[in-house]
């Protein structure tokens, strides 16, 4: 009985113990948000900038995006030209039509299109 108790205490002591010298925050990347997340070729691991290479930027800051021509321009899921704009008072657009026109915000359209009504009915399983 005594040998079983000693073995049990030894087992508990070994399973709960951890080396004192091994506790270093750099070994726990989830606890240190300043660590670079992985080894990437061609990038300086000490650079914390979002864009580390000017070749990664789009020309004039415009990201090319082409909408499907079959898309109805008045559907409810579209955002307006000023949606998510950092400077909406200065009319800084985040989206525009291919010909440079404005996209209406869903709240300012005045009414729902027939496709909007169909999609809402499908979304909420209405008859």
Automatic annotation (TrEMBL):
Residues 1-17 form the signal peptide. The keyword Flavoprotein does not apply. It comes from the Eukaryota. Keywords: Signal. InterPro entries: MetalloPept_cat_dom_sf. GO terms for biological process: proteolysis. One of its GO terms (molecular function) is metalloendopeptidase activity. This is Metalloendopeptidase.
């Amino acid at each position: 009985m005594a040998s079983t108790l000693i073995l049990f205490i030894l087992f508990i002591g070994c399973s709960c113990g951890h080396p004192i010298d091994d506790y270093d925050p750099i070994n726990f990347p989830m606890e240190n948000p300043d660590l670079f997340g992985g080894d990437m070729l061609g990038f300086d691991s000490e650079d914390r900038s979002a864009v580390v290479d000017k070749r990664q930027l789009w020309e004039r800051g415009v990201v090319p995006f082409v909408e499907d021509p079959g898309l109805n321009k008045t559907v409810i899921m579209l955002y307006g030209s000023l949606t998510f704009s950092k400077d909406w008072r200065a009319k800084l657009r985040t989206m525009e039509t291919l010909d440079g026109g404005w996209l209406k915000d869903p709240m300012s359209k005045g009414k729902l299109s027939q496709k909007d009504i169909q999609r809402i009915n499908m979304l909420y399983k209405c008859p």
